[in-house]
Fold this protein.
Amino acid sequence: MATILQTRGLKKYFGGLRAINGVDLVIEEGELRCLIGPNGAGKSTLFKLILGSYPPSAGAILFKGDDITTLQPHLRVQRGMSIKFQVPGIFLQLPVEQNLRIALQRPHRGAALDQALERLLELIDLGHQRSELAANLSHGQQQWLEIAMAVALQPAMLLLDEPTAGMSPEETFKTGELVKKLNASGMTIVVIEHDMAFVRQIAKRVTVLHFGEVFDDGSLDKIVRNEDVVRIYLGKV
Amino acid sequence: MPRWLSLVDGPQTLGRGPAFWFVLGVIVLVAALLPTFVNAFAITNLTYFLVWVFMALGLSLIWGYAGILSFGQTAFFGLAGYTYGVISINLGDAGLWTWFALLLSLVLPAMLAILVGYFMFYGGVRDVFVGIVTLSITLVFETFMAQTAGPEWTIGSARLNGFNGMSNMPPLTFPWGENPIIFDGTSLFWLVLALVVLVYVGLRILVNSRFGNVLVAIRENPERAEMLGYNVRLYQLFVFVIGSVLAGLSGVLYTLWGSYITPSSMGLTAAALPIIWVAAGGRKDITATLFATVLLTWLSQQLAVKGSQYALIWMGVILLVVVLFAPEGLFVTVWKKLRDGRRMRQRATAPKTVSLPSA
Amino acid sequence: MRWSIAHFLPHAQMTFLVEAYAFFYQLADSFAFLVLCGLGLAIIFGMMGVINLAHGEFIMCGAYVTVLSARAGLPLPFAMLCGTLAAGLVGLILEFLIIRRLYHRLFDSIVATWALSLIATQGMLIVAGPSIEGLKTPFGSFELGEYSFSVYRALLPLIALLLLGALYWLFVRTRFGIYSRATIQDADMARALGANTRRIYSQTFTLGAALAGLTGALYAPTITAVPTMGQAFIVQSFVTVVVSGADVMLGLAPSAAVLAFIQSLLAKSYGQLIGQIGLLMTVIIVVRVLPKGISGWVLQRNGGR
């Protein structure tokens, strides 16, 4: 399998705070990876560095073999990555359908766009609310809408930052099935998640971040057996 | 109908369908025929009301659609007016020189907008600071032009003339054998009216296009728009340039209309007016902006009979009332109320007709 | 000549000293003007994030009330107090009627205060006419070389510094100050700790308006009060506040000092209008280079994000 994403010695300091302190992460093509770790471990910061929201203090980021460390965010997205933010980042004052059209109109045109729109509406089960303002959706539906917008770009790699936050157990389970389905279709997916049931449902491999460093890495069963991980993270749950 | 033309109707504009376009067509037709009914003075006034529309539409695009509040559109207005004055006074009205002056008066604001826009959007200047930068620029222009009273401030044969401003520039002239066509009075009115129609339809197509979709996306959530792969800063720059060229167009036409331009057209009070028109009508809709601008400039003129202070007070009151009670703008609020009311009635009647047979 | 120093110094050096003092006087005058202009606006902006475009009209209000009550026979200090209180009262009322509805709507609050400014300026034009008879500047003047300096204007920089000191005390030592600084930091947290944020906003707006009124009152004896005078003041106010950044205590004095220097230098060499242009250009550059102003820059250097 080819490597799709690699970070080398990635660091990010905010003043004296070391949010990311030398992370070497390798994601293979087609992988479904979970990132876990206590609050403040640097998970969201890592995502933002990968997407270029701010520049790293040191280190390099490689995507599909190319160094993208200094590339502007929108160009990274155009190269095939896509994100669902932690706080739903949708266009609240626009209808559901237009939210999706804005996402779809860059890769698609004409009739293909309309077909893709219907597929996405079906995927997230919002066809009956297509002309509703996004602001009027439930929190879970807003999360799904944003996932659909991120998926609309047909990314090679999808980053999901806490996709199930604020969802009921049932919604969380549906989201897990959705993530597995997308992954089965060949999409590389990296997920930040707190919900261990969700992680168990989807993940083949888990990476633990702690104080901005990779603390442990492997299958969930291996991670759970690591007493140090349990101590810093799982023990608190 | 070609696809690009079908974009005149779309999610970013209120008012669509045959009835809407029929009414609009009638209004334009009546306006075009007005010179046969009313006197030259009324036509001159009407031209004046329409002259401001371009700057307002430009601001609606920048502020209402793209979410960038520029306080300084009058900088581009003034720059264009002065450019036309300087060029046309120097080159005269022979041949197509006045048209060349007109063209340059749009190119210069475009260049200034590119410069200022690049400085702001690529420099991370955001939100209210965009307003501060643009306002500062227009005040710099005003102050600078106000101190050009001395004879040393002369470009070629054109004197800038300080606080009193420039005057006596030649009107647009088109060579036509013995009798060149001079655009003043009725012909200027028709020219301005045609431009209003052209710009209005053009903007409707623009805001309903893929480009317009991205604009409202940036207004709603710039970070998300960027993470969908759009070059947010480039879009902002582009829309700022379009809006500023439109402000420039208003500036040239104003200069042509009155044959004068003064620094006060760029001052604080002047800068407030486009904001008032756009906010009062509804900044997120160009149709509302268009009619609000004509209506409010007309109202200002009516109120200013006793002195401009009476008009400005009412403009202030209207703005305050709108912000407090109809933040989306008067026209947009009324339009949406009517539309929702009609939908409610349709919904209320629809189930009855279905349920009756089964009963 | 009363100044005995002149007898001991050769003429050339005397001229230099006088020139230097004249420049310093200009600088201090400019500094005082910028501080006094900026204070009220800065407090409202820093605390509430509201950009008060009617700030100039509060200054105008203070100046008018001062002039009118002084001409009605009140001693000047009391007339100035009246001007200050009147502006504060107007601020209190407007906050209650209008501003408090717009706290979380930045654009709307700007537009609404702009509307208020328009109404106040044009209303005053209708009510009081294009200008009113001014007051005589108190304390007379003193002469140095070929220059004549107003004693009153020489005192204004001292008053500006005193006011800054008083505000420092207000924000550091009083209950209002502590609650209000907590509100700046985190409004929700302050509310949880028992601060009545709504009342603090109201008090802050009133204080800002009163300070603007005081500025108008202090300058009333030196200028001719006209309805459009607010426009001249507001540009200077904005420039100072933008360069200062949100923290008044930290940023305002350095901001005013830097700007006064730029303005005095340009005005001395090229005239008042170019000095004004220099100020505006400075703001444009500062917004780009230090978007949070001097105070934001200082705070960032001291370890914050």
